[in-house]
Write a structure and sequence with these properties.
alpha/beta; single chain; 10 strands; 13 helices
């Protein structure tokens, strides 16, 4: 319960305009711990740097809740440019996209603009042999995101598009079950948005138990799982579950955040596990940075010390 109260307090404070202005003016130096840079070239260099340790990359151009169709289309063009640049650099593109950033909830020609732009992005990724993960956002967008994910898998195949389930939402186990016919590639996370207790579990122990159930069920069903956590107890449990059930190391991967536990990422890669770092970049870094601060008091202290030095 204390971790839930801490997260709520940080996200509430970070939503204040004067706090955002202060952090944006003095906090970029600290944000670079979690954000690869502000442009595509910086993001691609981060992927190349991680590759030297045997770690893969998942690129995410930061931005969400885009307000106009023109802005959504512009954001989609930037993601397409990212795919082109990654391919030109000799990388197999792997990107994450928030559908709200490319127009979800807005209409274009009688169709949801988010789906229209997602088709363009997944189609380009498929042409390069790449992959797009549709990020999950707050609980109000889950139904539409899953419906659009289902449509995109039907058009482009599960080899080129996946999505995310959040273990703190009560609904996620039922959502996973409902997707089994697709044999989907799913990224399992705990959840970082500020959600009401009516839809999200308030206690860490319950969230962790739900996380394990989601991963185990997806592995048992023979589906590819992205185990996105820094929780070493969960990582060890997943390794033991896979070993006990004869699940090959190439049937799943561990995913972690850029700038957090590089040592653990390296250790898992040396053990022969597939490891991928989630690499955010771009100028709209503040919302993402706020969620990272809200995850643990240790992150908040890191930022506070840096700003006081400034």
């Amino acid at each position: 319960m204390l971790d839930q109260l801490y997260r709520k307090a940080v996200l509430t404070v970070s939503g204040q305009k004067f706090v955002e202005d202060l952090v944006r003016s003095r906090g970029w130096g600290m944000a670079q711990r979690f954000v690869a840079g502000e442009d595509t070239a910086s993001a691609i260099r981060a992927v190349q740097d991680l590759a030297r340790d045997g770690i893969l990359g998942n690129l995410d151009l930061l931005g969400e809740f885009v307000a106009t169709p023109a802005a959504a289309n512009d954001f989609a063009e930037k993601v397409l440019h990212l795919l082109d640049e990654a391919h030109a650099a000799g990388l197999t593109p792997y990107v994450s996209v928030k559908l709200s950033s490319v127009g979800q909830g807005q209409t274009a020609g009688g169709e949801d603009l988010g789906l229209v732009n997602a088709r363009r992005i997944v189609g380009r990724a498929k042409a390069y042999g790449g992959f797009v993960c549709l990020d999950m956002e707050d609980h109000t967008r889950v139904d539409q995101t899953l419906a659009q994910f289902r449509a995109l898998v039907g058009e482009f195949g599960r080899e080129h598009v996946g999505t995310v389930l959040q273990s703190y939402l009560y609904r996620s186990e039922a959502d996973r079950d409902s997707l089994d016919d697709l044999r989907p590639n799913l990224r399992i996370v705990k959840g970082a948005y500020l959600e009401p207790p009516s839809v999200a579990m308030p206690h860490k122990a319950d969230v962790d138990a739900s996380y394990r159930r989601l991963v185990y069920a997806h592995l048992k069903a023979g589906n590819y799982v992205n185990v996105a956590t820094h929780d070493e107890s969960i990582i060890e449990d997943v390794k033991m579950y896979a070993l006990a059930h004869g699940i090959r190391k190439d049937a799943f991967e561990f995913q972690m955040l850029y700038g957090i536990r590089r040592d653990l990422q390296q250790a898992l890669a040396r053990e022969g596990y597939r490891v991928r770092a989630y690499i955010p970049y771009g100028r709209d870094w503040y919302p993402y940075f706020s969620r990272r601060i809200a995850e643990t008091p240790r992150n908040a202290l890191f930022v506070l010390r840096g700003m006081l030095k400034g």
